[in-house]
Every structure is written in structure tokens, then in C-alpha cells.
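Let us practice reading a record.
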Amino acid sequence: MPTVRTNDIETYYERRGDGPAIVFVHGSIVDSGMWADQVAALRGDFTTVVYDVRGHGRTGGSSRDRYDVALYASDLHELVTALGLERPIVCGHSMGGLVAQAYAVRYPDRLSGLVLVDTFAPTIHTRSEWFLRRVAMNAFVPLVRVLGIERLERLNVWVSERVSTGASGDYEAVERLREDGPTITTPEFTKVIRSMSRAHEYPLDLETVTVPTLVIYGEQELGFVKRHAKEFAETLADCEVDVVPGAGHASNLDDPEYFTAAVREFAARVSRRDDRAGPEAGDDAASAAG
């Protein structure tokens, strides 16, 4: 089982293909298997790297009392460094999108592009979003001890559908993912959920992100995710937005062909730009970062 040391844990990863690198960061309570369709389609033209985020899958947990977005981003930095990846594109879904944002802000010279999938910024804008991200999410912690993770997730899907029909997308695809991979433990679930509910405690200056960015989300996404997509478009220096028709929160699973085509086109464009810029582009970015 391939692993690399990232801070205090052994992180499981899979590396496939050849060419410019794309690192995929999965969402909460799933694992790197969520990117299987993208890896299969892109590995012929790109180096694809997927990994199980701390607390999830084959990476598993650690003895730390709490996790946060800064720690996840540090783990990603250690992974990219250990694998010798040269300024990869970083693609993150939901919680993975928070990790990708933190990585882009903290390590601006260590990526060439950013893909934010069905995600949101740390900032909380409205009372309803505060309720969803602070109250409802924290309520998962005591509920998981009573209901178990699977039943709690089904309850979450039921609630999401009442808030926005279609937001949960093809939930059966998510269930199949969980059948094939290790189950997250209750203590690790607790730390992961709390890290997401506290994400606003680690604000990020997205105006410092200058790499090309693709923001992509499902047409049936929850309203607050759509609002954050608009914020990304207004804040990020070089940003485009794409909507996956008919998809919900896991747009890469709901319509893998559309999603993967969008990522392929974006990655190819970023790679061509880097080729034109020449090898000194990375040095210039490093100098600008200080």
C-alpha cells in the first residue's frame, strides 16, 4: 500500500499516468475513490494523484485531539513535496475545496491551477448558512453516536433534499463508494466534522490567489454553495465558473463525463500557458511569494 509521511501520519495515495500533474482532494466522510472516473479518463494525458485525507480511508486517523483546514493543507504540501510534483493543479471537492483554497493561499508557488468543486469559502455570510455550518453540522456529533454514520448520512440527505430538491444528486454512487472502502471511525468523524464547522476560524485572503481557477458546481446545489461560487468569481484574479447540468453536490459523480471534460479542458489550457511561460515561471512565482 503506497504511503508517504505527512507530518505525523502515513498518508495513502495513488499515482497514475504521465504528464502535468493534477492532485485531487476528496470531500468529507468519503475517500479518494470518489475520483475513480476522473483518474481513468485523465491518466492518459496527465499525472493523476489521489489520496485519503487525514481521518479518512486507508490513511485513517491520528492521536491529535482536533483537526483544522491548516493542518489538512500542510498534509497536502508534505504529499506534493514527497512525490516531487512540480506545481500541480489542485482539485478539491467540498471539504477538499477548503483544503485546496488553504493550500493555494499558504503555498502560492507550489501550484499552477486550482479547481474548486461544489465548495465554499471559510467566511459565513448569512444566518441560514450559519445555521447549516455551525448548528446543524455540530449536531452531527452527538447524533452519530446514536444513529451511526450511515443512518446519519441518510438523514442528512433527506434534510438536504427538503432544502433544495436534487442537491444530494446520485447518493447511491456515494453509498457504493463507502461499500468499497474502509469506514471512518466515530472519533475521526467527530474531528472531521468539527474541523469543517470551525473553518470560519481560519479565514483566507483569496485575493492573493493568482493562479487560474475553475469553479465548478452542480446545477441543483444548495443555495449557499452557489453564493460562494459567485464570491469566488468576484474575488479570485483569474476565475471561470462552470455549472454541471442536473447535478447535485457530488457533481463529478452525478455527471462524470461533463465534469471530466471541463477539468481536462482547464488543465490543458493551464499546461499550455505554463509551457509558454517557460521554466522560469515557477521561480518568478516563488520570488513574488517572498
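A brief commentary: The radius of gyration is 18 Å.
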